[in-house]
Amino acid sequence: MNDKSQKSVANSLEVEEHLLQHMPYLLQDLWALGSSVDQILDLIGTLPLSSDSVKVLDLGCGKGAVSVKIASNFGFDVVGVDAMTEFLKDAYKKSSEYQVSNLCAFIEQDILTYMIEKHSFDIVILASIGGVLGSNEDTIKKLRTQVRSGGYILIDDGYLKRGEVLRRKGYEHCRNYKKT
Ligand SMILES: C[S@@+](CC[C@H](N)C(=O)[O-])C[C@H]1O[C@@H](n2cnc3c(N)ncnc32)[C@H](O)[C@@H]1O
After folding, report:
1. Does residue 12 form part of some domain?
2. Residue 165, domain member (yes or no)
3. CA distance 72 to 135
4. What is the pLDDT at residue 93?
5. Cα of 111 to ligand 1 centre, how many Å?
6. What are the residues facing 78 on neighbouring strands?
7. Number of domains present in the structure of the chain
8. Which residues contact ligand 1 via a Cβ below 6 A?
9. Residue 66 CA, ligand 1 centroid: distance in Å
10. 151-172 per-position pLDDT tens digit
11. Which residue has its alpha carbon closest to ligand 1 atom 4?
């Protein structure tokens, strides 16, 4: 992992970079690393998509909690991208456990590098990885390059309470509801 990826991963996990090597151990009991998996599944369930050829991109997929459940619940093809080798090992294990390894591909790469190339996924998910892609506007712009026309962008993030200011590393992109 290069320095830039390392910084981004550390930010997304809200730890100092020197602690990164310990994160797989510290997070060993968790599968989902921050995203609201059930809500994402509920939302996807409302989309007018048939399972035949739906392709999903899960950016910053971590241990694949979202990717594997989507493949398992809907039969969609999922590509998960993450820079943490150890997390991806768990993602592969889980996809086998759920018998969807044929539907899941996990790529070890910085998501910014992956996104240099345009793609045309039906659904692109950015779940609980913070402001890696910049401001809200930049984030949407970049995600648009990965989704087909008429496809769906799903962001799992938070709003600030009205009037609240959050001076916390990794949360610089957060806006209140009105500004977003
Ligand atoms: C808080 S975790 C969320 C993981 C997953 N979306 C979930 O909810 O289970 C953030 C993930 O984003 C990954 N990440 C952060 N920045 C990244 C980058 N620039 N390229 C690839 N992965 C990144 C981290 O390695 C980590 O797995």
Report:
1. yes
2. no
3. 32
4. 97
5. 9
6. 56, 104
7. 1
8. 5, 8-9, 12-13, 32-35, 60-62, 65-66, 82-84, 87, 110-112, 127-129, 132
9. 12
10. 999 999 877 777 777 777 666 6
11. 62
Read off the pLDDT of residues 4-50 as tens digits, 9 standing for 90 and up: 899 899 988 888 889 999 999 999 999 999 899 999 999 999 999 87
Does residue 177 belong to any structural domain of this protein?
A: no
| 132: CATH | 3.40.50.150
What is residue 137's predicted lDDT score, i.e. its pLDDT?
A: 87
Structural domain of 150: 3-156
CA distances from 86 to 23, 65, 71, 115, 176 (A): 9, 14, 21, 22, 34
Selection from 8, 7, 135 nearest residue 59 by Cα: 8
Q: CA 130 to CA 59: how far, in whole Å? A: 11
| CA-proximal residue: ligand 1, atom 26 (nearest) | 62
More confident residue, 46 or 177: 46
